[in-house]
Amino acid sequence: MKLSVTFINTLLASLMVTAALTRFLPDEIPIRFGWASLLFPLLWPILIFFCYWFEKVWRSNAVLFGLTLALAGAVFLI
Amino acid sequence: MNNQRTKRFLDLHALAGVLSGLFLFIVSLSGVFALFGDELVTWEDERLRIELPEKPAPLMPLLEAYVAKLEATGDVTSTSVSLPRPDAPFYEVTAWFRPEGQAKAIRRLERWHPETGELLPEPRQGMVHWLIHFHRSLMLPRTYGRALVGLSGIFMLLSILTGVIIHRKILKEIFTWRFHKSIRVKWQDSHKVLSVWGLPFHIMIAFTGAWLGMVALLLPATAVIALKGDVSAVFEALAGETTEPTGKRVEMVSLDTLLPQMEQYAQRTIRTVDVERWGDETAEYHFHYRPFGTLTGLAVIEARAETGEITLHEQATKPGITFHMVSAVTTLHFADFGGVLVKIVYALLGIALCLITVTGMMIWLEKRRFGFQGERSDTFYRRLGNLTLGVCLGMVVASFSLFYANYFLPASQPDQVFEIGLVYCVVWGSVMIYAMFREDEYRLARDLFMVSALSAAGIPVFNLLVTGSSRYFEGSYALYVAGADFICLLTGAVFFWTFLRLPYKRLDRKSGR
C-alpha cells in the first residue's frame, strides 16, 4: 500500500516537473521537451528513493503532493 | 547513514526486486535475443542466403520502374532503399503509397535480388519479428506495450539506486565470490559481483530503455499539461518544417551516379537512401551512413535530386541537441555501434542482468523458506521457487523453440506471427505448468537445464540437416548463419555444463525454521 501510494504520487510529481520544464525552460519546444523527457526516467526513481529517505514516508509524500499542486498551479495559471 | 534508513532501503530494494523481478527477467532475456534481430534475418529465411555481388545491379532503373508501377494507381509520398550488405544481402525498398481516392498512405515493402534485381519472395513476419517485438512491446498495442517495457527500466533504476546505497562495501564485494560456502552465500555473492561489475551498463540500459519506452506516452501527457492540450503543437515542432511538392516534374540525377560520390564524401558506406517527393522539383535524396567515433546511429547527407547538390550534412537525422541526444539514446540501447562484437558484449551483460534478477529472487525466497523471515508455508515458497524457475528457463526453451518452428512453417506464408506466438506461448506455458507440479525443485532445475541445453545445441544440427552442408559455409552471409549456430551450440554447452554441476538435493544444512 505504502509503495503503491508512493509510486503513483512520485509519478504525478515527475510528470508535473517534466511538464513545468517543458513549459518554462528557455529555448524552442523540441529542445525543452528533449531535456525534460530525458530527466523523467531519472526523476521518478529518485523521487521514490527520496520518499523512503525519511522514517515517516507520508511526510515526504505530502511534500511531493504539495510540489505537484504548486507546479500544476504554475503551469495552468501562468 | 543510520541503520534504520539502510533497513528501509533494503526493504524497498527487496520489494521492488520481487515485484518486478520476473518482469525484468523477461524484458532482459527478450532483449538479448532481439539484439541479434538483423543478424538472424538470413538464418530465418533460407531464400535470402544470397552471395553479395561485388557490383550490385544498378538501382535507379529498378527504382524508376517500381515507382512508375505504384504511380499508375496512386501517389508515392516517399521511398526508402536499404542497400545490400553482408547481413541483409538484398535491396529492401519501403514505399509510402497513397492509393487513388484514399487519404491515408500505406506502407509497401519489397526485396530485390542484388545482382539481377528480381523480386524476392515476400518478407516473412515470423521468428525475428516476434523476437524483436516481444522485447519492444510484449506484442501489446505499440504505445502501451512500450510504456510497460519502459516501466521495467524505472524499476531497474530504483533497484540500482537502492542496491548501491545498501551495499556499503562495494569495493570489497566485487572481489568476493565464495563458491565453497552455502547456497545462500553463493547466490548473494553472485548477485553482488554481477551487479557491481555490470553497473555502468545496467544504468545505461535501464535509463535508455525507460526513456524509449516511456517517451511515446510522455510526449502527449506533457503536451496536455504544459501546452494546455495542444498536442499537435509538440508533434509539429518535433517534425520540423515540411516541404510541399510544387507539382513541376524534373529529371532526377541517377542514384547510381550519386552513391559512389556520397560514399567518397562521407568516407563511409551508405546504408540507406530515402527519396522524398519523387520526380518533383523539390525532390531530395537523403543518404544515411553509420559515422565513425560518435554515438549517432545514422548520419545523413541531404542532396537535391535535380542537381545532386548537397544541402545538409548532419550527424543526426535533424539538427539540434534534442535529436543528437535521442539518436545517442537509441544507438546506445540497440548497440548500433561497433558491430557484432559490441552486440556480443551487450548480450553477455544482458545475460548477467538475467542472472542478477534470478539470484535476487532466489535470495528473497531462500531467506523466507529457510531463514527467519517467512510467514507462509514451506509448500508456498517451494511452489514460488518452482514458478520462478519455470518462467525463467521456460522462456529460454520457448525462445529456442522458435528456431525449430521457423523451419516447420511454410516459407510461402509471409505472416507467421500468430503461429510463432502460439508455439512460444504453448512451450513457455507447458514448462511453467510442469514446474508447478514437480515436487522436487532440484530435479526440476536439472530437468529444465537439460531441456534448455538440448534445445539450444540442437539448433545448429537441425539447420545443417535442413539447409545442407554444401551451402552452409559459403557466401558473404556465412558469418551470420554459422555465427548464430555457433552461439546456439555454445549456449547449449554452457547449459549442459551447468546441468552436470547441479546437485540432486540440498547440500547445506537447513537453517532457521
Explain this structure.
The complex is a heterodimer of chains A (78) and B (513). Chain A has one domain (2-77). Helices cover 86% and strands 0% of the residues of chain A. Chain A has helices spanning 2-24, 29-51, 57-77. The model of chain A has no long low-confidence stretch (mean pLDDT 87). Among the domains of chain B are: 48-123, Nuclear Transport Factor 2, Chain: A (Roll), CATH 3.10.450; 376-513, no CATH class. Chain B has helices at residues 3-34, 41-44, 59-71, 127-137, 142-166, 170-173, 183-197, 199-226, 231-239, 255-266, 321-334, 339-369, 378-408, 417-437, 441-467, 478-501; strands at 74-82, 91-99, 106-112, 270-276, 284-289, 299-304, 310-314. A seven-stranded antiparallel beta sheet of chain B has the order 3-2-1-4-5-6-7. Chain B is globular, with a radius of gyration of 26 Å. Chain B starts with a helix and ends in a 12-residue tail after the last helix.
